[in-house]
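Bench notes, afternoon.
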Amino acid sequence: MTARYSQPSRVQINAAAGLLMRAVEKVCADGIMTPDVGGTATTQDVTDGVCEVIRGENI
């Protein structure tokens, strides 16, 4: 038996992209940024922050 994969719809892709963008914006607004954009956080810190926001959906 093979696993079936259904391609996400454009609506699902746009929703996911919007969630990711809002999470990144919230993390940046909270001051969690890498040195190349004026912060002191590591890439891992930023990634962890974005994942936490997405998991909690507290945007």
